[in-house]
Amino acid sequence: MNSDFEVTILGTSAATPSKDTWLSGHYVRAKNLHILIDCGEGTQFQMLRCEISPLKLTHILITHLHGDHYFGLIGLLSSMCLQRREQPLHIFAPSGLDEIITIHAKHSHIIFPFPIHFHPLPDSPSILWEDEEWSIHHFSLNHRIFCQGFLIQEKPPKRKILRDKLPQDFPFQQFPLLQEGKDVVFNDILYKNEEVTTTAYLPRSYAYCSDTSYFEEIIPFIQNVSLLYHESTFIDKDSETAFSTYHSTSVHAATIAQKANTKHLIIGHFSTRYKDLTIFLEEAKSIFPNTHLAESGKVFGIEKSI
Ligand SMILES: [Zn+2]
């Protein structure tokens, strides 16, 4: 069954593609929001394979300006032009990407038939966007260049009314107040919200952390998330290389997931030097059992729970 909040993995490789793997890109559907996080070269081919229309995208979030995270963007935007997209597109990315898009458009004589709202990512953590049901946040990672992680957070859902705690003639016009968490007076009796309603389900969340060295400063931003994606470019024996290139290992990713008390962890952004990814999973699971390997085309549903 399809979830109304799910993540599709488009690419899993770090730095360069291989003949079987693709570069960074995650598609997140959060009810009516269609969000692409990172857009490595080949992302639009992967979207075609996964039957995700570029025309649906409402937001594109780019973590940093290393090519393996955004070189697919110009091609994707160009396809949207050819497909006669009309609806606005919000791009949140490091400052400079707007200049890159503009110079490509200038020399290719592209005139975008849809509004692109470019939002440069601020230095300090903030809420980038929100509506009644969702908010998108960013926070700093620790990489060789300016690099940001993202959190997509569901707002608390309406409270569930316990009908058997209310009299038969309780006016239904008061239900919205109860669903919003307010107390209500009826026939001179106070109905306290916590006594006549219950939590419908816990708000869900998805955090995306790539690229970064082991960096405990991110933990407050990703505490208790339902699903965490954390890069794992290297295995534990190559931790010195991870340190010197500002990347993480499977052990680092799992330790962050454990310390942040996340429910599930996806690891990805694997260096193409490793032909067998089993060791990544084994190392991470020894610390954080709910670890999953990123695989191109795989969909992770984020289900409601109490
Ligand atoms: Zn990078």
Strand content: 25-35%
Span from first to last CA? 19 Å
Question: Structural class of the helices, strands and pairings?
Answer: alpha/beta
Major sheet: 7 strands, mixed
* Computed CA radius of gyration, to the nearest angstrom: 22 Å
Series of H and E elements:
EEEHEHEHEEEEEHEEHEEHEHHEHEE
What is the averaged pLDDT score? 95
Residues in helices, as a percent range: 10-25%
What molecules are bound to this protein?
A: zinc ion
Q: Which segments are poorly predicted (pLDDT under 50) over 5 or more consecutive residues?
A: none
- Which outline best applies? globular
Number of strands: 18
Total helices: the number is 9
**Looking across the biggest beta sheet, what order are the strands in?**
6-5-4-3-2-1-18
Annotation keywords:
seven-stranded mixed sheet; binds zinc ion; 18 strands; 306 residues; alpha/beta; single chain; 9 helices
Write the layout of secondary structure elements.
Blueprint: E1 5-11, E2 25-30, E3 33-37, H1 43-49, E4 59-61, H2 73-82, E5 89-93, H3 97-108, E6 116-120, E7 126-130, E8 134-140, E9 148-154, E10 160-161, H4 175-179, E11 184-186, E12 189-191, H5 193-196, E13 197-198, E14 205-209, H6 219-222, E15 227-231, H7 239-244, H8 250-259, E16 264-268, H9 278-285, E17 291-293, E18 299-301
Parallel strand pairs: 3-4, 4-5, 5-6, 14-15, 15-16, 16-17
Antiparallel strand pairs: 1-2, 1-18, 2-3, 7-8, 8-9, 9-14, 10-13, 11-12
Bound molecules: zinc ion.
